[in-house]
Amino acid sequence: METANYMILGFAVIFGVLLLHLGSLYWRKQNLQRDLEVLEKTQMRSRRTKKTKKKPSRR
Amino acid sequence: MSSKSIAARPRFLTLLSTLSALLILAATWMVFFFAPREAVMGEVQRVFYFHVSTGWVGMVAFLSAAIAGIIYLIRPDKKWDVFAVAAVEIGLVYSFVNIVSGSIWARPTWNTWWTWDPRLVTASVMELTFLAYLLLRQSMEDPERRARFGAIYSILGSLTVPLTYMSIRIWRTIHPVVIGSGDPGAKGDFSMTQPMVTTLMFSLLAFTVFGVTLLWHRVRLGWLSERVEEFRLKSMEM
C-alpha cells in the first residue's frame, strides 16, 4: 500500500505541534521576564519617590 | 522564590534539555532507518511509534496532575497547583498529537479519518475534560478557590485516563492493542518484529524524557507567572 504521503503528514503534525508548543513556552517566558523587569523598575521608582516625599515632612 | 532564582536555569535542566533533543533525534533516526517497513500498511505505520509514545506521555501527565491535586488537598501549597497546571498543559499537547496522528494513520488503514470507536471517543473525552479544566480555572478569580477546584477537578478528570487505556480491552473495537491481546475485529493490527519493539521502547523512553523536560520548563514558567502576579498586586496596593 502506498501510504508515504500520510506518513509525511503524520510527522509534520507531530513535530509541528511540538515545535509550536516549544515556541509558545519560549515566547511566554520572554514576555513574563519583560513584565517582571518593568514591574521591578516601577516598584523601585515608586519607593524612591516615597522616600523623597517623606524627607521634607521630617524637617 | 526570587525572580533571580527563577531566571537562572539549573545546570541539570540544561543537561536534560540537551539529552531530550538527542533522544528525540535518535528515536526519529530509528523510526526511519532501523525499524523495517510494515508489509501491509506501508510507510504510514512509522507514525505508530510516536503515536503510542505521545499517548503514553499524555496519560502520565494527566495522572501526575491528579496526584499533585491529591497532595494539594492534603497539604495546600501553591507549588502543587502550579505543577498540576503544567502537567495538564503537557498532557493536552501530547494527547492532541496522539489523537491527530492516530486519525492520519486511520485514513489509509481504516479508510476513514474518524469513527465512533470506544478508544477514539474516550481519548477525545479525556482531552476535552482537561481542556475544560484550563478554561474553568480561568473563570475563577480567587487563587485559593481556583487551586482547590483544580485539585478536585483533576482527580475526577483523571478517571478518564484508565477508561481510555482500558477501552480497547473492555469493549468491541477496531483499534489495535499494543500490549496484550486485542479484539479479533481490530483493523491495522500487526505482529511486531524485534527491531520494531526496540524502536517503540526507545521512542517511549525519548518522549518520556522530553515530557519531563517540558514539564520542568512549564513549572518554571508557572513560577515566573506567579511572581509577576505578586508584583502586579503589590504595585496596585502601592
Describe this structure in words.
The complex is a heterodimer of chains A (59) and B (238). Chain A is an all-alpha fold and 59 residues long. Chain A contains one helix and no strands. Chain A has one helix at residues 4-58. With 238 residues, chain B is mostly helical. Chain B has one domain. In chain B, 76% of the residues lie in helices and 0% in strands. In chain B, helix 2 (11-34) packs antiparallel against helix 8 and helix 5 (118-138) runs antiparallel to helix 7 (160-170). The radius of gyration of chain B is 20 Å and the shape is globular. At the A-B interface, helix 1 of A face helix 3, helix 4 and helix 8 of B.
Helical stretch tally of chain A: 1
What's the pLDDT, averaged over the residues of chain A? 87
Q: What percentage of the residues of chain A does DSSP assign to strands (E)?
A: under 5%
Anisotropy-based shape of chain B: globular
Q: Tell me about the largest β-sheet of chain B.
A: none
Q: Give the strand content of chain B.
A: under 5%
Terminal-residue CA separation of chain B: 21 Å
- What form of chain A results from the Cα inertia axes? rod-shaped
Counted beta strands of chain B: 0
Secondary-structure-derived class of chain A: mainly alpha
Q: Helical proportion of chain B?
A: over 70%
Structural class category of chain B: mainly alpha
Which chains have the largest interface? A-B, 27 and 35 residues
What fraction, in percent, of the residue positions of chain A are helical?
A: over 70%
Oligomer: heterodimer
Please state the CA-atom Rg of chain A, rounded to the nearest Å. 26 Å
Unreliable residue runs of chain B = none
Number of domains of chain B: 1
Number of helices of chain B: 8
The rounded distance between the terminal residues' Cα atoms of chain A is: 91 Å
Number of strands of chain A: 0
